[in-house]
Amino acid sequence: MGDGHIDANWREQHRIAHVRLGASATRPTLEFVDLEDAATIADGHSHLTLAGIHGEDRTITCWISQIIHDLVDADGNHPFAGIRYVSKHGADFECWATFEDVALERLSISPIHRENPDLQAIATLF
To answer: Residues 6 or more apart from 2 whose CB is under 8 A from it?
Structure first.
């Protein structure tokens, strides 16, 4: 396997899915917490930094996610559906993570073909 190629076994074990987020009884809104936002960081912890969020230690991001997941508003609902952050690979790559209890409606699912232009672009880049 040379540069710019993705192993066929990986492609066979993964799929491209398009989904729509849906509100639920416990998560009636679909708002996300932006971990890159300065106000979010300032509200979090006095020693929390973007470097910590983007670091290799997943303990920090798991801790942050758990706190956001467990928040409850005055009505007993969870106000956030997930988190948004920038990949450690750069600002061109946004990551959106939904919590497991957020309803997802599957719109389509398809195999990942070697010729997929998005796959080829990422394979070439990395």
So the answer is: none
Helix (H) or strand (E) holding 64, with range, is helix 58-70
> Tokens standing for 15?
């799929």
For the chain, list the strands marked E by DSSP.
15-22, 31-34, 80-86, 94-98, 103-111
Do residues 24 and 103 touch, judged by C-beta distance below 8 A? yes
Count CA atoms closer than 13 A to 67's CA, side-chain side: 12
Provide the pLDDT for residue 2: 52
CB 59 within 8 A of CB 9: no
What pTM was computed for the model? 0.77
Percent of the chain exceeding pLDDT 90 equals: 37
Residue whose C-alpha is closest to residue 41's, from 3, 86, 95:
86
